[in-house]
Amino acid sequence: MSRQKLLAVAAAALLMGGCASVDPWVKPYERDRLADPIMSFERDPVIASHRRHVFDVREAARGAAGGSGGGCGCN
């Protein structure tokens, strides 16, 4: 019985040790290859952010798109 427990513990330790990683799988300098522009919702994120800001200020309805603050535009 103790031999089976020992083997089970050793197998679990080997399996859990395989999950540990010292280095990240994706290096910071490799992330630009994964961030493909075709995966974004907007064609130009800077223009889309500006349009959202203008809409929030004009409509005085901040918060519906995840923003915070007042509708006066003085944040």
Could you explain the architecture of this structure?
The protein has a domain at 36-65. It is an all-alpha fold and 75 residues long. The chain has three helices and no strands. The chain is elongated.
Looking at this protein, list some descriptive labels.
3 helices; 75 residues; mainly alpha; single chain
What's the topology here?
Blueprint: H1 2-19, H2 31-34, H3 45-59
Structural class: mainly alpha
| Cα radius of gyration in angstroms | 25 Å
Q: How would you spell out the order of helices and strands?
A: HHH
Helix content: 40-55%
How many DSSP helices? 3
Total number of strands? 0
Give the overall silhouette.
elongated
Low-confidence stretches: none
Q: What's the multimeric state?
A: single chain
Strand content: under 5%
- First-residue to last-residue Cα separation: 68 Å
Brief summary:
The protein contains three helices and no strands. With 75 residues, it is mainly alpha-helical.
